[in-house]
Amino acid sequence: MNILLLGSGGREHALAWKLAQSALLAGGGTLFAAPGNPGIAAHAQLVALEATDHASVIAFCAANSIGLVVIGPEAPLVDGLADSLRGAGIATFGPSRAAAQLEGSKGFTKDMCARAGIPTGAYVRVSALPEALVALKGFAIPVVIKADGLAAGKGVTVAETREQAEAALCEILSGRFGEAGAEAVIEEFLDGEEASFFALTDGATILPFGSAQDHKRVGEGDTGPNTGGMGAYSPARVLTPEIEAEALTRIIAPTVKAMADAGMPYSGVLYAGLMLTRTGPQLIEYNARFGDPECQVLMMRLDSDLGEILLACAENRLAAIAPPRFSDDTALTIVIAAEGYPGTPAKGGAITGLAEAEADGAKVFHAGTALTEGGTLVAQGGRVLNATARGASVAEAQARAYAAVDLVEFADGFCRRDIGWREVARETPAAG
Ligand code: AMP
Ligand code: GLY
Question: Which ligand is nearest to the CA of 271?
């Protein structure tokens, strides 16, 4: 079978690396990736396709006998690419436009949680400033203000004062995020530790697909501005089997049922951002895709055939397959970003040393790289590389990942030196 993977980041490099090992490709099948990146090119044939041009993607699939399309990022999902592909009879991994509202609209998700009794922070949806300021008075401080739509991870403010909350509402409702700002959600602040939980579902069957924790802030000690994630590790040991079971029965399963009942069955990976509060796990948000860089650590631990699993999901056959198997090892990934990130990152910095960095079993996934005409690998984005390694403990995975980082030559790059600190502290007996 031929497979088409859509996307170009570190998440897609990790997916391409695992898909390239799939038995689905046995007997001469080809993995295509669009647009891909220089790292993905080692595992897939790159094609120039715009995910926004549904007709071209469908035509490519028909011309190349594509048996499975895997959609990596959220934008094409929210844009309805999965609907177009399924409409053309092409097996597709990723939710419909209607189901992707779980990521595309915070208000939609909060309303669904309210209807289904899913534990999450109290909230109000607002669309005009005067009513928003009145509604805000009903919330304690800190309070969380969110733009309703996709805002590339920049639409959330955890306000420590009323003035900050008012300013955030002002900014969103005055249109700074374009269409995404037409509406906002005011939300109760939840206190606890965050963890990410992944589940595959075809709309009926649910298969847990691992857990992770990431570091969103750019600076060491979890300080400074938010980013798309500076590093992650899997599993998230704070998500104990008991808490995971509770998240499944009280959050994931009612969501899958509510979506099916509403006539918009969810098919794909459901990525739940959870707050582990003193009263149990609560939903912070859903994403309709794998996390980036969480996917990199999940793929590093996945022992099962990714292609078989994603195809079974796309074909509503999850009930018939063996549950995915993950290694007991910890995997940890460190994001190497270009100077300036998350502001304006420096572009064009030369990168070498990747083969040396991978010599000891680590994987360096490409997140934002390009090849110059002369064949030099250079930085082309904020998050540039993901040095990823496995170990029997978090400390071991961390040491191996940093050993890989230290072999990468990238003068314009920087990374946090403390990825995994919470877990390392937990697994190290307290001194004295
Ligand atoms: P989101 O884009 O919804 O994941 O929000 C980004 C980050 O804001 C989350 O990872 C949390 O750290 C924080 N956050 C969002 N909602 C809440 C909440 N209700 N209580 C506390 N922190 C939150
Ligand atoms: N790393 C966070 C995300 O993918 O949304």
Answer: 2
Upstream peptide bond of 35 is cis (omega within 30 degrees of 0) = yes
User: Locate tokens 């709309």: which residue?
Assistant: 203
Nearest to 61 by CA among 30, 40, 37: 30
Q: How far apart are the first and last CA of the chain?
A: 59
Residue 196: CB within 6 Å of ligand 2? no
Model confidence pLDDT, tens digit, residues 270-307:
999 999 999 999 999 999 999 999 999 999 999 999 99
| Dist CA 108 CA 124 (whole Å) | 12
* DSSP letters spanning 89-103: T--EES--TTTTHHH
The CA-based dihedral angle spanning residues 160, 164, 165, 166, taken in that order and rounded to the nearest 10 degrees: 150
Peptide bond into 323 cis (omega under 30): no
Distance in angstroms (rounded) separating the CA atoms of residues 380 and 333: 19
Residue 182's nearest CA partner among 145, 134, 149 is 149
137, burial (CB in 10 Å: exposed 0-12, middle 13-18, buried 19+)? exposed
What does DSSP say about strands 413-414 and 31-35: parallel, antiparallel, or unpaired? unpaired
Q: What average pLDDT is seen over the chain?
A: 95
Ligand 2: does its nearest atom lie under 6 Å from the Cβ of 287? yes
Give the containing element (helix H, strand E) for 276.
strand 268-277
| pLDDT tens-digit map of 46-85 | 999 999 999 999 999 999 999 999 999 999 999 999 999 9
Q: How many CB atoms lie within 10 A of CB 8?
A: 26
Strand partners, 35: 7
**Model confidence over 402-429: pLDDT tens digits?**
999 999 999 999 999 999 999 999 888 7
C-alpha to C-alpha distance for 199 and 176, rounded to whole angstroms: 33
Residues 220/417, Cβ–Cβ less than 8 Å: yes
Measured CA to CA, the distance from residue 89 to residue 82 in angstroms comes to: 11
What number of other Cβ atoms are within 10 A of residue 411's Cβ?
A: 10
CA of 227 to the centre of ligand 2 (A): 9
What is the Cα–Cα distance from 84 to 406, expressed in whole angstroms? Answer: 44
Residue 119 Cβ < 6 Å to ligand 1: no
